[in-house]
Amino acid sequence: SELIRGFLLSGMPCPSSCPSGLLALMAPGLALVATFSLPSQAGDRRALPVEKPPGVKGRTLILLDVNTKSPVRIISENFLSLQLDPSIIHDGWLDFLRVLTRGARLLAGRLRKIFGILWGSHIWSSSFALLAGAARFRVLLGSLLPFILIEAQEGNIVRSDIALDKQKGCKIAQHPDIMLELQREKAAQMHLVLLKEQFSNTYSNLTLTARSLDKLYNFADCSGLHLIFALNALRRNPNNSWNSSNALSLLKYSASKKYNISWELGNEPNNYRTLIGRSVNGSQLGKDYTQLRSLLQLIRTYSRAHLYGPNIGRPRKNVIAFLEGFLKVAGGTVDAVTWQHYYIDGRVAKVTDFLKTRLLDTLSDQIRKIQKVVNTYTPGKKIWLEGVGTTSAGGMNNLSDSYAAGFLWLNTLGLLASQGIDVVVRHSFLDHGQNHLVDQNFNPLPDYWLSLLYKRLIGPKVLAIHVAGLQRKPRPGRVIRDKLRIYAHCTSYHNHNYVRGSITLYIINLHRSRKKIKLAGTLRDKIVHQYLLQPYGKDGLHSKSVQLNGQPLAMVDDGTLPELKPRPLRAGRTLVIPPLTMSFYVVKNVNALACRYR
């Protein structure tokens, strides 16, 4: 049967009328104490003069200015994306998807563009129940929607009796409470089964039939979402070439239904030896992609369909060689080059790991490796980080879903945006592990609130920052990595609380002491709105709850997110960044030339 690797549903930023929701890919940047310019943010690199205002200790003061003339990067409007666990198919939730259609459809009306991607070979389960959480799920997912990934597997394609009817097919299915209760029990049992599979590295098939595909597409289409479908690359002929027979039947079936789908082939192909006992090199996968492109061109419906890949794993030496071989053969056939990154093994993670700047910087090195290869063989090709999470192996309770994990998440967003990665797909919105954004009762976790603020405040234009201050002298042989990370973007055009030309800063302070930042240059003497996120409760960095400007954040009810109220700071006031915190600052009415126009 044909593996369907997942499926991403992506959405554009919500306007102010959109219900508060999640989704924000924050990006921690870099800001060192001392004359410093971000190497990844080209622009005017002249250092700011270091001044010591009366009453402020020089060692704690940092001067910050932003180049407002032109952006250094422009990322996709759909930059922040999310993965949705495929177990909605595996453990029976597919029949309940239509419960969510209405909320998703209402959201889609406020979105300009939504993408989706299907990919995968490993199957993870979801212990979430849509019982009491259906309304809450619609609000949370709807507010954050950019890309959502679902993994699945497709079986024999036969004609289905499900027709996509805009008037009838989009009605909300009604299910008795007892059905939802039974489904919750079934999901809990399947959760244990799939956990065992994950740790034993043996996986059962997840079959997506024609009827299942119809349900998926019906849900996506009625919700205004675009589906990207990843075919199974593990089906091999004796000569190790891709066996496309089952994929062709799927393509023909989808075309007969006039389904608007984009495509992908396989997932982490560099690991196929462990899955099928035989390896596939980059050039062979390139030939497979060329074959897939030829199949798409033979089918009128998909002659211009988008194709993405190869979705490789962490770019070690052998994986880089794989990517080079792939791009030499098929670089011109894909619309974006994709790869994945997970920071640490969730089975051995500690809270102090999330505070290590050396760990935070590992992604930057990977980005450079991927960009070097892509620019060599396919200059100008867009790059997507199609799978990312703080930890692998499903994460660790009280760590991967805690406030501390937000440092890695915000760092990821900042590095990717500043270095020109077009799209990032977060693993995951919900699943059986601990890397998700909402808990089993659909209560938002800290990374959800980070994502929501990012979605509300951050626009696609990235600005260069200039920082000056005092830096302690490094000890011999030791490199000082900055623990204060700052990024700047034009404020989102979709946030009507701020006029065009405003700028949003987002900051991570990994120091165990507070830091003071004085806005200079074009930012001097402007009114600032502060959005300071801190852990809430006695658990500190392990907390699964957060407070915004001192007020705890929680759902008002199943259908309502709280208002995210900023704290206004008077013009010219020094920003005081508490230790071990993340924050956003909207500098109002800057009238930045780079931010006036879309």
Architecture overview:
The chain is built from 13 helices and 26 strands. With 598 residues, it is of the alpha/beta class. The strands form five sheets. Strands 5, 16, 18, 19, 21, 22, 23, 24 and 26 form a nine-stranded antiparallel sheet that branches.
CATH homologous superfamily caption: Glycosidases
The CATH architecture assignment turns out to be: Alpha-Beta Barrel
Number of domains: 1
Structural class: alpha/beta
Name the shape in a single word.
globular
β content, as a range? 15-25%
Uncertain residue segments: 1-58, 99-138, 145-168
Terminal CA distance reads 46 Å
CATH class: Alpha Beta
Key descriptive features of the protein:
single chain; 598 residues; alpha/beta; TIM Barrel; 8-stranded mixed β-sheet; 26 strands; 22% strand; disordered N terminus; HPSE2 protein; hydrolase activity, acting on glycosyl bonds; Glyco_hydro_79; GH
